[in-house]
Design goal:
This protein has 90 residues and is of the alpha+beta class. Helices cover 68% and strands 12% of the residues. It contains three helices and two strands, in the order ββααα. A two-stranded antiparallel ribbon has the order 1-2.
Amino acid sequence: MTIQPLSGLPSVRRRSSADHDLSCLYAEVLTARAADQLTRCTPRPGDNVRRNAGRLTASLGAYAGALEEYGLPVPAVIRDELRLRRRLVS
C-alpha cells in the first residue's frame, strides 16, 4: 500500500485511493466473518447461517478481486478460504 507525501508538506502523507478501497473491503470481510461466527454459535441459526456464509464469501471475493485489480498478491489464507467456501456452496 502506497503512502505518498503531499507536495509542499513532506511530513504529511496521504493514502492512495487503492488503500482506501482495500481498507473498506477488508473491514467488510472482518464484519462478515464476525457475523458468520456469531450465527454459528446461536442455538437455532436457521437461514442466517446461509445468508452470513454467503455474505462472507462475497466479501472475500470482492477483496480478492480488488487486490488482483490493483496488481497485488492475494494472501494464500484468503485465496484458500475463498476457494473452500465457494466449493461448499456448490
